[in-house]
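hi! just following up on the protien thing from before. the input was this:
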Amino acid sequence: MTPQLEEAQRLFRLALRDQETFSLLLPLPRASLAAIGFHAQQAAEKALKAIAVLRGIEFQRTHDLTALASSIQENGGELPVLIDELRRINPFAVEFRYDDELIPLISREELESLLSTIIKHVGLQIEDVRHQF
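and the predicted 3d structure came back as:
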């Protein structure tokens, strides 16, 4: 196993941890969209970073999903979702955590579908590389 694969797997485990927290909060009517969206954004961010590491793509320390996704695409990687979809969850990383006014850019259901698609895609990519060793 290579150091890149090990780091990608570590980032993916962290993404799954955030996805689990997201899933626990999602059905709770009193859970704020800001809190739910934060964990979705964090899971997506770590999953995209796992892809970048797996492909040997260097990236800046960032919470910007569109920048990560663009870097992946520019280096020949495939994305499971459109960059415009990622742009809708970007504000949950910072802006919505510190603002008491939330502009609903995405629904809970859309967050769930988007995150599920990303996690499945990254998991399959990691498994493909892991089977090569």
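The chain has a mean pLDDT of 92.
The chain has one domain: 3-131.
cheers
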